[in-house]
Amino acid sequence: MSSPALGTARRSDRAVLVIAVLLFSSLCAALMQSLVIPIQSELPQLLDTSVSNASWVVTATLLGGGVAMPLVGRLADLVGKKPVLVTAATILVAGSLVCALSDSLAIVLVGRVLQGIAMGYIPVAISMVREVAPPQMVNGAVAGVSATLGVGGALGLPLAAWIAQDHDWHALFWVSTVLAVAMTLLSLAFLPNTHDRHPGRIDFVGAIGLAIGLVGVLVGVSKGNDWGWGEASTVGMIGGGVVVLLLWGWFEKRHDDPLVDLRTMGKRPVLLTNIAAVLIGFGMMAQSIVVPQLLELPKAAGGLGQTILQAGLWLAPGGLMMMLFSPVSAKLLTRFGGRITLATGAFVLSAGYVVAVFMTNAPWQLLIASCIVCAGVGIGYAAMPTLILTNVPAAEAASSVSVNTLMRSIGTTVAGAVMAVVLTSQTFVLAPGTPEIPTHGAFRLCFVIGAAAAAAGALVVLLIPRRGRTPEAPVADAPDAVRDELVAAAVTE
């Protein structure tokens, strides 16, 4: 007869295995964010299309993820998390294969949309890891999985640059196919298939309305600099999207089983956390856009003259910093709670941009600033889902984390648009007949804006009440017996 201590050790081992699978799989899904960035300038030639059309290869993944996340989260709450996670991983396999086997823009866009949809894996994984982790591991596990959103994007840049430099561009998608197959098999084999579903039904009208509204706003914002911010197409997309979202909100508040419970989202801790997510997501993306451009700009133009691969390698330590600071975030969460931890991360993020304003003359200087920024992201990204999960009912855990992840994505989209406006508003011509180049002052202004956004996010977080919990505690706070049921299937299936 096994001792209680041995049984506890075995339960912890099972939980560690499940958490490891969720970490690996979330990291693979997050890599899709930056997979094509190193070859973005070559896409018009590779796909035989215009520069404007080629930019959709990046935008398509953003749209797929933005539209899918709330629906994927709601499905996870209704039918259980494992089926949704396995399905998301399978969709990533399909999307990667479609891109790997095609040279047509239209087909590649389909594949990239599917890859974006698969990023819905991450918020569901965050909500699952809180359920299966032992109490002493909860904060560290949530911190690690949540940080993959930033880590994947940061580490994906040098990896993709190396593959694209030495191999055919299709190799990027063959690698992502292999990773997607691995995450599918691991999710199928080791994730617990537990009874974590909740009664309800899918609000298809709400899902369609949210999709139309989000697509309108996100397309208008992401393409505004190309189309012109005053053009009818841009104004129409953004304005139309906002109108649809307002109508969607009116409909959802009157629905008895909504896709997103706006009453829950309107609670002060949840609302302020989501507003902070937009601002911190903005801050995180600013350095991902600006620093690579400054590194790759020719020295004659005031840049640092690095190749795509060199720029990616200078940025890689930032991704490692996010990983290293996830345990720090976990300790802060345990000691001070989500509110102080998230505010600390945002202030560190802001401080990194302040450093960047004064350190732009050498790659190593940008490396230091980037590492500080990424440390702040690692701390902050880990705290957001904790604040959400401690303030929503268990039946809405996955959908609420998905909405928070969507808010981060909206922040990154707005950051891309704002940075593009700033960098194109202050330019000079190096020689007659050459393209206009952003001035050094434009790059510094981007850093100032990033610092302001992150600091504003920190101030918003500090408005969250010191203690704000719903009567229904998260599963992570449930007795060990409940958690044992959740992880037991990882070895009994």
Task: Walk me through this protein's architecture.
By secondary structure, the protein is an all-alpha fold. The protein has 2 domains: 4-202 and 259-492, Up-down Bundle (Growth Hormone, Chain: A), CATH 1.20.1250.20; 203-258. Helices cover 76% and strands 1% of the residues. It has 19 helices and 2 strands. It has helices at 4-30, 43-46, 51-54, 56-79, 81-100, 105-118, 121-132, 138-166, 170-190, 204-227, 232-254, 262-265, 268-296, 308-336, 338-358, 363-389, 397-425, 440-462, 480-492, and strands at 427-429, 436-438. The chain has a two-stranded antiparallel sheet. α5 runs antiparallel to α7 (121-132) and α10 packs antiparallel against α11. The longest helix has 29 residues, at 138-166. It is globular and about 65 Å long. The two termini are 23 Å apart. Residues 1-7 and 468-493 have low confidence and may be disordered.
CATH superfamily of the largest domain: MFS general substrate transporter like domains
CATH topology of the largest domain: Growth Hormone, Chain: A
Q: What percentage of the residues does DSSP assign to strands (E)?
A: under 5%
Radius of gyration: 22 Å
Report strand order across the widest sheet.
1-2
Query: Would you state the CATH class of the largest domain?
Result: Mainly Alpha
